[in-house]
Amino acid sequence: MNTLKSLFVALLCMMWTQTADAQIPAAPQSGPIALVGGTIHTVSGDVIENGTLLFEEGVITAIGTDVELPEGTAIEDVTGKMIYPGLIDSYSQMGIYEIGAVSLTVDVNEQGPINPNVKVERAFNPESRHIGIARSAGVLTSVTTPGGGLISGQSAAMHMDGWAWDTMTLKSGVGMIVSWPSANSDNYKSNIEDIRKAFADARAYKKAREASGVPRHDIDTRWESMIPVFTGEMPVIVDADDVRQIQDAITWAEEEDVRMILLSGRDSYLVTEYLKKNDIPVIITNVITAPNRAWESYDARYSLPSKLYDAGVEFAIAGDASAANANRLPLEAGAAAGFGLPVDEAIKAITLSPAKILGLDDRIGALEVGLDATFLITDGNPIEYATQVEQVYIRGSKSDMNDMHRQFYKKYREKLDQAR
Amino acid sequence: MIKVNKTAHFWGLMRAFSVLILALSISVLILALSITLPSTIFAQTVPIEGMKENTPRVHAFTNGTIVTEPGNVITGGTLVIRNGIIEAVGSNVAIPADARVWDLAGKTIYPGFIDAFSEIGMKDPRVELDRGAQSWNPHLRAHLNAINEFNPEDDGSSELRAQGFTTVLSAPPLGIFRGDAAVIELGDGSVANRVVRNGVAQSASLSGSWDFGYIYPTSQIGVIALIRQTLYDADWYERAHQAYENNPRGLQKPETNAPLAALRDVVRGTKPILFTTSSDEQILRALRFTDEFNITPWIKGNGNEYKLIDVLSEASVPLILPLNFPEVPDVDSPEEALNEDLGDLRDWYLAPENPGRLNAADITFSFTTDGLEDKAHFLRNLREAVFAGLDSTAALAALTQNPARLLGIDTTHGSISTGKVANFVITDGDIFADQTQIMDVWVDGDRFNINSDNVIDVRGDWNLTSADGTVQADLSITQSRPGSLSGTITISGIEADLKNVASDDDTRRFRADFEGDAFDVYGLIQLTASVSGDQLNGWAEVPGSERVQWSAVRVAEFEEEVKEPDEKLARNLNISITRPSMEYGRESIPEQPRYVLIQNATIWTMGEDGILENADLLIERGEVTEVGRDLNVPRNAVVIDGTGKHVTPGLIDAHLHSGVDGVNEIGNAIVPEVRLGDVLNINNIWMYRQLAGGLTTAHVMHGSANPIGGQNVHIKMKWGSLSHDLVIEDAPRTVKFALGENPKRVGTDRYPETRMGTEQIIADRFNMARDYEARWNEWENNRVGIPPRRDLRLDAIVDILNEDILVQSHSYRADEILSLMRLAERYDFRIKAFHHGVEAYKVAPELAAHGAGAVVWSDWSSFKIEAYDATNYNARLLFEAGVATSLHSDDSQVASRMNWEAAKMVRAGMDPVDAMSLITSTTAELLGIDHRVGSLESGKDGDFVIWSGDPLSTLTVAEQTWIEGRKYFDINEDKTLQRNIANERAKLIERAKEVKND
């Protein structure tokens, strides 16, 4: 055990940049790179032992055991290592939340109940220290999600490396967030009516704008931003926990004829058939959390993913909203695996499944030719506690692993060494 | 109510209390007219004004059933009362010649009910006590007295009389020590004439109150600490004053303090202290005072007593039981029913069984109406309790004999016997039968009418004839439901419905109307008549024609339908009483086999032996005796095959806040006198969930609102035990300190408001404690003068300075950690551990040098500014620096998976055994309990967990959790329990729906 430890310390020292305090974003990939000798977990297909992963200009160009390498390919030997697609945190406040109790560092909830037009990427802070911390834990894409009100705004998929939000945005307008009102609230029914009215108004607006032979209709920024929802380009992501909320949201989405994704979904196991009938996938936001009712089993939340899996409901596992906890994402999937979900499915729930659910699977979620070269190199299964994420690549570039946690460790390890 | 003319007396009273009366409104004057004055004036000081009133007060009640006391019934007996006293009772009693005779054929007489706790006359209590020698703390009002606080205006007597009560204990309602309770008769008028017994008990509450604003104590821990301090103070107060009286020369006189003086007999144990409780745990809290003080407790319960039958049987403490049952749970829809927990469903279903279950266990109690929002529900609930199994004789005893004895008034009250006060209840049947009504209540020989038999009855068929003989009609009057009459009138074969049918007892008059259309009269025909037996004599207003006089004779009696008695909720559910009374509760604690042997497992000893593969663990009588290969199998050992399994010591959480009623006392910045051990609450589902994750021990801590907070408590997760049996008795005392943001942001005007002030107020109290210790030392040496007062707060700080209480300090930033270490060093003691310590890694060498431990989170970060410099390598760096390091949860859910917390440290680069030490051996060391727990070594407690595999793997679950050789969690048993819970909830929900639909 001790040998293992010292080996690990040595490894860390090698991996983490010695000099800079700030983490420097990686430069774009400059030439073809091949990782050879590793075990490639494509997630969408087979596990390839002793395989080669070739990527160029940030995109995977070949995968297999018999890959021809173009001239000038930089070759890295990763024998004994595992390669997994980058983990996707499908629900996070990354980049818009820095310090919980310091409200001026939190940009999650806009004023008022109806904010379909706000877009998180435009407020995404690339200097957030949580980005580097989650990234070195393997979280390479964050679906940053606004909250509050009834229609909260639009989420965006963000690369976890880059100089500014523009280049870091993988996809804007990933989903229109609807925060379903609390079923215990006295205003529950009137709040549902508010949501219905907003959607009806937005539809009326679309019709008025598209109509010909009538006076020109002026722009309404809020309703304008909802048009992609009605054309089917943008799903509606409904945040709901209680079974009453979930049922009512499904019925609502069916009536509105919008594509719905259920977010959170604590009681979703009670209405799996209704979810399936309407093709509604679930983004489970918390696995490592408390049961809601005393009669529920101690593992009610840990085993929710396995219940949805057994019922055949499509789902992804996200984590706690707090950007500071995004580095726990693999552990959330691990907890699901500890309580009944097959390990491969748990890994899928933080890679391929969220990519499919959120329409990102043309870029990320698996290791396939044509997808982004966004992946992690580990010494084991990424959802196991003891596993070390040794290096991550985003769009073909090696990211700085020396996050703030490690910088603090190194700085004060130095203090300790000086004291000795 | 029969009223004699009291005008003369009334005006006499007017003059006597003219000042008071002047202040009263007209409406109150009208009310005051009904005051019934006692006519025995020998014991009165009030002068007679105007004409003396002297209506005879001699009554004989004949032909009734007399229940003289529970279980003793005289049928057809006679009761004679004279001037408010029972003169004779029996079957062969001669009726005195001067008696007014009441024929009670068909009626039953019971002794007057005694309400053993009430706030009669305590309306609008005084919040401010701005005169006299007060205590510094407005919660201490022991010197008040129900009689002096009594407000006769709308005092609540009539509501209680309507339920059969004649006598009550009344107690002042505010504060913690509330004052003396008194027994009062429920007659009308001045309290001066109604006192039965004064100073019966000191009333105390275990709950604080916000009536006095934001003042210490603000929490359950604070309330108990203040009661404890006050009892010590009362004892000291008497001794201090005695010392002064003996030799006042040269001495400073001790303060005069009315509440402390009033508690003298309480601390001597000669005056009972009546604790008002609001939960099962509060009952235990009240009883636990007797471990420390020679007091005589009475308990006013709260409906949860059936959960404590073993305790109450043994304690044989006087009990006063309320009959306020919980409302039917909200189960209208399946969605709503989902949110009803088993504990609440059971509480609802079992509440009516509470008195019956206690009685079946031979526990004596008295009833109170207290707690009932509507006192009119008392009899209804009493009958429900009898239906639910309470023996009716015992029920009557709890209303009469028992409270009379308890309140010390049984020579005059509690039964119908010669010489006792004429307090009794007259009913029209068995008091425990649903339809029975209370007719009259007699208090002190005066009658209060509650319900009357009808004097007139117009129901039946009548032949009506007009005076001129031109109209013949048949009148049929029926009763549609109680109090509602209807009927028809038929003239020449044409029938019309009667409207507005009514009869009035006082005027003996009948009224009815009918539409004239059918009889060619346009408009309403109105009938009125005087009733005399079977005769009606009246007249009719007929639109458009002359008034018609008429009379009628009854030709047929009304035939009353025999009413079905109310269907009651059948009580046939087999609900077992568990501890706690909720999901997964136990009927008894698990048995402890003499030997338990786990064979062939991977054993993490967390001692010198490290991890042993293919090893055995032997537990004997709850203690580890041996760990090693191929151990002998003792006879009758419970043998567990550990093949493929891992075994670790029971996990320990160094910082938990679940299972206690409140964690912060914010009424003062410095509160080390409060103790979390006082407020443990077993009704805590988390304990089971934590066991399910292998947690066996926890350090339950005070909150972080105070630079010096309260004393923490070490518990074992002995699910199914009483709260005080969870406590690890030989654990060292520890205290919570708090630095940084939290203690400085409490309120707007509480010192400190900066980290500077935090350091200074701690230092200031250290100085005070040194002075206090010196005073005591002087006293112990010479015993001259006034004995010093025992101050539990300073006592605790002295113990902190002497390391008899170990400091466990909440902290975030490196600077504050350093400050507290340096401060402690100036006072020559050590801080045991810094908790949270998000920046502890920044001062790791200093911590190691000081000898302080660090108790930290694995990965919490950035929820506030002082948590921003968090690193997941905190514990690792501390460990590398040689700091004794532990993890903690500070969160109920995290505490239920502490192995995951340790596993995260493997991810951060720690060796697995070192990581495991963060939640076992080192944790035990930092909490001072490593002589008992934290490793699997000979002599340690048999607390262990059997895991499905490597406990630090994400795929592993705890399969069994054992404490002291008893199995408290088993993953297979859990499945069965879950099924049972589902079945029981379904049954209870179904039953609740039945009741709701009725």
Outline:
With about 425 residues, chain A is an alpha/beta fold.
Description:
Chain A has 420 residues and is an alpha/beta fold. The model of chain A is unreliable at 16-20 (pLDDT under 50). In chain A, the strands form two sheets. In chain A, strands 1, 2, 3, 4, 5, 14, 15 and 16 form an eight-stranded mixed beta sheet that branches. In chain A, strands 6-7-8-9-10-11-12-13 form an eight-stranded mixed beta sheet. The relative contact order of chain A is 0.17. Chain A folds into two domains: 2-84 and 400-419, Roll (Urease, subunit C, domain 1), CATH 2.30.40; 87-364, Alpha-Beta Barrel (TIM Barrel). Chain A has 13 helices and 16 strands. In chain A, α7 (243-256) links the parallel β10 and β11. Chain B is α/β, with parallel strands linked by helices and 998 residues long. Chain B has five domains: 7-110, Urease, subunit C, domain 1, CATH 2.30.40; 114-449, Metal-dependent hydrolases (TIM Barrel); 460-557, Lipocalin; 590-649 and 935-971, Urease, subunit C, domain 1 (Roll), CATH 2.30.40.10; 666-689 and 700-716 and 733-885 and 898-912, TIM Barrel, CATH 3.20.20.140. In chain B, 26% of the residues lie in helices and 26% in strands. Chain B is built from 28 helices and 42 strands. In chain B, the strands form six sheets. A nine-stranded antiparallel beta sheet of chain B has the order 20-19-18-17-25-24-23-22-21, with no helix packed on it. The longest helix of chain B has 28 residues, at 755-782. Chain B is elongated. The model of chain B is unreliable at 1-39 (pLDDT under 50). The chains are: A alpha/beta (420), B alpha/beta (998). The interface between A and B is large, with 57 and 59 residues.
Strand order, largest beta sheet of chain B: 20-19-18-17-25-24-23-22-21
Q: Uncertain spans of chain A, ≥5 residues at pLDDT below 50?
A: 16-20
Binned strand content of chain B: 25-35%
| Shape call of chain B | elongated
CATH homology superfamily of the largest domain in chain A: Metal-dependent hydrolases
Q: What is the second-level CATH architecture of the largest domain in chain A? A: Alpha-Beta Barrel
Number of helices of chain B: 28
Assign the CATH superfamily of the largest domain in chain B: Metal-dependent hydrolases
- Binned strand content of chain A: 15-25%
- Structurally, the number of domains of chain A stands at 2
| CATH class designation of the largest domain in chain B | Alpha Beta
**How many structural domains can be distinguished in the coordinates of chain B?**
5
Mean pLDDT of chain B: 93
Characterize the biggest β-sheet of chain A.
Answer: 8 strands, mixed
Give the overall shape of chain A, derived from the CA principal axes.
Answer: globular
